[in-house]
Task: inverse folding
């Protein structure tokens, strides 16, 4: 029994298992590394927002040189993200689940491959999205720029930003749950 | 650097990197707001392995590459850390982003990946992010003129 207790505790911390999270994380890091090693570019996902706005807006801020000269590859990077996720959900995921049912059952998420939509209410997505849009631009980065590349390069700016957004995200999510908003 | 002067494989490398990045976001579940919210509500700590695993990989690659002191083959750019400058906005932005992430369970890269897994309601979040980025840029543009 005593030997089982830590296992049970680990199961409660990770109800979906650990494998898909770890595998996914390693791939996210590998994707950023492919871009860095081949081009020297430290990729972040949120600058896409303002660099893409430069195609349709004449506001000065979106038409600065660094956005206009990078907007082309940022669209390509984003198209890559969309198609990579689609590749998993519609091709590799179901294949892998059929070929390796034991992996699929360990990696809870793999069994959910295929088209999927969220139950989180539209106003939460829209309202949260607006704040994410403002916050990443003010804070100079998001979970990929600061969280993956910034932390990876041990940048103090990124570590402070990540600690701040983590603390406020946890507080907010707990509050939203406490007032009974679900999903 | 103009598009014309770019190495022919530049776009392919960016696309391939994005593809692997998006594949990882889909496998990890980060493209699903429910999984992110479960993490923020302390119901599933798996997301620690996503950010941790990714940062360890980039950390090793960045450290080795900058120590090589050579240049990237497709652009000729030097391998640098290009650390962002710290100011008060880094904190304020972190707070606003954190509140938004806690409400919606979605961040930019994960939202794009979510489109790829067929999640059309996520377009609300993407519309919101563009609105937020536009509003922030518009107000800042006026302030600096």
Result:
């Amino acid at each position: 029994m005593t030997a089982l207790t830590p296992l049970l505790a680990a199961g409660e911390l990770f109800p979906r298992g650990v494998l898909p999270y770890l595998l996914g994380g390693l791939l996210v890091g590998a994707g950023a590394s492919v871009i860095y090693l081949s081009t020297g570019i430290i990729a972040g996902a949120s600058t896409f927002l303002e660099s893409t706005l430069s195609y349709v807006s004449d506001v000065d801020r979106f038409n600065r040189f660094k956005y206009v000269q990078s907007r082309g590859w940022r669209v390509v990077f984003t198209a890559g993200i969309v198609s990579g996720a689609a590749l998993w959900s519609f091709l590799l995921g179901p294949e892998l689940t059929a070929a390796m049912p034991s992996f699929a059952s360990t990696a809870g998420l793999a069994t959910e491959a295929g088209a999927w939509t969220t139950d989180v209410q539209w106003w939460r997505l829209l309202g949260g999205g607006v704040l994410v849009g403002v916050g990443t631009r003010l804070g100079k980065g998001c979970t990929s720029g600061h969280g993956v590349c910034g932390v990876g390069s041990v940048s103090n700016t990124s570590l402070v930003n990540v600690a701040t957004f983590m603390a406020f995200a946890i507080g907010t999510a707990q509050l939203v749950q406490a007032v009974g908003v679900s999903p | 650097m103009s598009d014309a002067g770019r190495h022919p494989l530049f776009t392919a490398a960016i696309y391939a990197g994005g593809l692997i990045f998006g594949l990882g976001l889909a496998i990890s579940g980060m493209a699903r707001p429910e999984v992110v919210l479960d993490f923020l509500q302390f119901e599933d700590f798996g997301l620690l392995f996503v950010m941790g695993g990714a940062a360890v990989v980039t950390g090793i690659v960045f450290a080795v590459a900058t120590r090589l002191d050579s240049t990237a083959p497709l652009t000729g750019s030097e391998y640098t850390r290009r650390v962002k400058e710290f100011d008060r906005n880094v904190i304020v932005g972190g707070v606003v982003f954190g509140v938004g992430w806690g409400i919606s369970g979605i961040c930019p890269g994960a939202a794009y990946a979510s489109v790829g897994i067929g999640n059309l309601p996520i377009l609300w979040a993407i519309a919101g992010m563009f609105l937020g980025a536009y509003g922030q840029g518009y107000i800042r543009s006026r302030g600096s003129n």
Q: What stands out?
A: Residues 96 and 102 of chain A are 10 Å apart (CA to CA). The mean pLDDT of chain A is 89. Chain A touches chain B through 125 residues (CB under 8 Å).
